[in-house]
Design a protein that fits this description.
Radius of gyration: 17 Å
Number of strands: 10
CATH topology: Rossmann fold
Helix content: 25-40%
Oligomer: single chain
CATH architecture: 3-Layer(aba) Sandwich
Order of helices and strands: EEEHEEHEHHHEHEHEE
Strand order of the largest sheet: 6-7-8-3-9-10
Bound molecules: adenosine-5'-triphosphate, magnesium ion
Largest sheet: 6 strands, mixed
Length: 226
Amino acid sequence: MSEPILTVRGLSKTFVSAGENLVILRDLDFSLSPGKRVVIIGESGCGKSTFLNIVGGLEAATSGTVSAGPYEVHALSERELSSYRGSFVGLVFQFHYLLKDFTALENVMLPALMRGMKRREAADRARALLADVNLESRAAHYPSQMSGGERQRAAVARALVNEPQLVLADEPTGNLDPANAEVVRELLFSVVTRHGKALLLVTHDTETATLADERYRLVGGKLETA
Ligand SMILES: Nc1ncnc2c1ncn2[C@@H]1O[C@H](COP(=O)(O)OP(=O)(O)OP(=O)(O)O)[C@@H](O)[C@H]1O
Ligand SMILES: [Mg+2]
């Protein structure tokens, strides 16, 4: 067994809303090995996005620890967090968040440029990733000139451009019709495998879960094997 790439211990998250404590994650433990593709399912509102956002360094936990590779995520400063988010993890969201004034190629290049990669190298890498998600012919298109499925595939390419160790995907197919969902789902899983990454995907869609190496259900703030 190789060392986990992600270890979550005793994770809790409580929101305070209208004076009431809303316990969303309750002393949750989880670990993910390199090369594994894990899907977490659960009903709407059970805390899937909250969990993924905490792992991705986008949201703080109430208590508990998150270790990802060399990063103690719960203890990072804002500055360290942005390095973690920009290099160690690759994020794919339900709504793609491509920048509308940039082409598909430029959108994929941007995270690499922000890390200081030379323009030529970033463009080469972005082009190869667009080919991986069957979007070679859409490199010069702006998001408004792409279909929903194409945008989501571009978002998958963008998430991989900095060669993250850990790909985090939040309902990456939730916004797509069944045919496009199928394409994006298969591409995401195969691209992640081909690039030797670990994948943590959360969804309420049980179909997506069938592709996973391991499946869990988030219920009552904890993970159960599903
Ligand atoms: N900032 C916040 N303040 C108060 N409550 C919040 C906040 N963010 C989320 N919640 C609550 O936490 C719960 C979990 O939200 P979360 O977005 O993690 O659910 P989810 O499992 O991703 O749902 P979905 O499948 O609909 O995306 C929800 O009941 C939500 O209302
Ligand atoms: Mg969600």
